[in-house]
Input
Amino acid sequence: MANVLIVEDEKAISDLILMNLRLVGHEGRQVFDGNEVSEVLHEFQPDLVLLDVMLPYKDGFSLMEQKIFDGTPVIFLTAKDSVIDKVKGLKLGADDYIVKPFETVELLARVEAVLRRAKPTERYIIIDNVSIHFDKREVTLNNKIVDLTNREFELLEVLINNRNIALSRDKLLDLAWGYDYFGDTRTVDVHITKLRKKLEFENRIKTIFKLGYRLEV
Amino acid sequence: MANVLIVEDEKAISDLILMNLRLVGHEGRQVFDGNEVSEVLHEFQPDLVLLDVMLPYKDGFSLMEQKIFDGTPVIFLTAKDSVIDKVKGLKLGADDYIVKPFETVELLARVEAVLRRAKPTERYIIIDNVSIHFDKREVTLNNKIVDLTNREFELLEVLINNRNIALSRDKLLDLAWGYDYFGDTRTVDVHITKLRKKLEFENRIKTIFKLGYRLEV
DNA sequence: TAGAATTGTCATCAATTTATTATGAAGTTG
DNA sequence: CAACTTCATAATAAATTGATGACAATTCTA
Output
């Protein structure tokens, strides 16, 4: 079940959408013009937004430009079948695009597709007493959440993705800091130290003398 | 073991591929649309890419045209069985082509074939219970990682490259220490001792009296 | 087979490399 | 704008490496 925000000024269409969503087990909230949207968002957190391009007061594009939907996936609804609109919508970060009039089956299919995509498989891994949930960006040690800083998490991610492979400090800087980072390679040491301590990984993260580090699993 | 990047929007298919790859000892990372790909590449370096042609946002062909996979081998996945697509994919530098729906056996066979073909540089040798991965700089004895120091590894490398050939201490110093090294030739003895012990190579590394050493395989 | 020559092994220690803590700059949050 | 947080760098402590010397063991040869 997902909560869908339907932003559509034509009540008949909005009702039709809502009905169909309910048929397949979702719940919806209707909004009929662009001004209402931000108010509603305060009390209704949608998993998906169906957003008409042509709206009273504020059109769908400008709502997108305001980024009021944050990370929530958005599907544009529009009567316009022009390529320009489509490109514009997708550039603004829309997840899909449906041209009116549409088959309800198509609508539902796209809704499902976007919802599925927005909820990626939960990637997680357990090493010793540590569990790492990549999507939630959450790491626990003995079931208690460990506060990792951004860098620490990224470094951990890189080590896990390249587990059992010795990585030089330069390589680690490339992968975790970015290819455009030019700093002291000793920085890596400091962060390795922190990971070891926070995750009790003293024996998991091996130092390869004169080379770098390796996460052994 | 190889790291495979699976770029495929249909989760069911992606999961199926991942499961099968894992069955034969590979590891995989799933990506569900074209936009995610470049981000993921920053922290995950695949040995092989399985690339769906039909993807949300950016199709497989345009990803290939951007050359973001660099030298990494790519196998296209597609539902289209048209010759044109096939030619196009291969022209863009794909290493192989699989038409959906495919037999998992066929998939795995092609994956192995491409990996084998693409990795002529993966130098790797097994002697008794010891395996030596030159590129990863990793040596195992009975499947457990053996910690070799830098010098020890270099000496081992030289011995393997000259296996079954007797090498004088001076020659070994030249090859493993460098032509500009001028030290006691007895140093070699100490390191030979260590290699013998660490790798249980007492009978593999033979002493040639008044000459030097030979690794017999 | 004696004993000289050669090789094996261990312990040591200086040089190098890594670990850890401290500091302050830059950015964030309330 | 003050209190925090993060994190790169600096500074210092700790560790590892590996050449060397000492002596034991082995091998060769006369």
Summary: The mean pLDDT of chain A is 83. Residues 104-118 of chain A form the longest helix (15 residues). Chain A has eight helices and twelve strands. Residues 149-151, 183-184, 186-187, 190-191, 207, 209-210 of chain A lie near DNA strand D (CB under 10 Å from a C1').
